Fold this protein.
Amino acid sequence: MKVNYPEIRNVYGIKIKTFEPECRIKGYILALHGFCGDMESSVINQLAERMTSHGLAVAAFNFPGHGTSEADEYFSLYNCRKDMSEVINYANKKYGFESPDAVFATSFGGYVTLQNMNDIPAETKIILRAPAVNMQRSFGKFINNMAVFRKNGQQIMGFERKLTVPYSFYTELENNYILEHDFQRSMLIIHGDRDDIVLPEDMKIFCQNNPFATLEVIKGADHRFKGNDYLKQIIDIAEKYIINV
C-alpha cells in the first residue's frame, strides 16, 4: 500500500491523505472523519488496509481546523461540505473515475455526507459510522455553557488538537436539521447501542424516516467503538457492503 499527502490549494489548503494499492486501481473510496478528529483516524487506516487489498484506493482529508489543517478560521458547515465536493472532484480526476465507489463517513462526517447527498451519484454506496443524524444535539455535548458560548461568540473545543468553534457553526446546525428527513437513498448505518453522542433514540427516528437505510447495531459499542475488536467488526461489515464478499 502506498500512502501520499497531496494538498488542494484554494483560499486555504485542504490536506489530503491517499492510500493506494500496489496493483491497478479499480476505483476509490472517500473517507470522512468526525468532529475534532482527523484523517489519521484508526478506522480510516484500517479501512484503507482492507480496501487496498481489493484494488481500491482510499482518499481522506481534514476538515478546516482539524488535524494538520491550518485553516482554523474557515471552519464552518458550509466549508466542510464544499471541501468534500472538492476532494471528490480531485480524486475523480486523479484516478480517472466519474464518482467514488463508496463514501465511508464517521459521526460529523456522516452528517456532512447527508447534507451533500443530492450531489452524490446514486451508484456510490454510502456507509455511515455513528452518523450525527441530530448534529445539533450531539454538538451540544461539547458546549460547556450555551449562554456563554452565545455571548462570547466562540468556544475552544477538541482533544490534543484544539479548535476555536464560532457560534455561527451552531446556527448552521440549527438551520440544517435532518433527523426526520427522508433521503430516499440506500445506505448502511453502523451504530453502537451504547453511543452517548449519537443517541440510539435519535438513530431510531432517523431510520424510521429512511426506509432504504440498513442499520447494523454493534452491541456494547460506544461512540468511539473502542475495545473488543469493534473496529474490526466495522471494517468487516463495510467490506461486505462495498465488495459484496
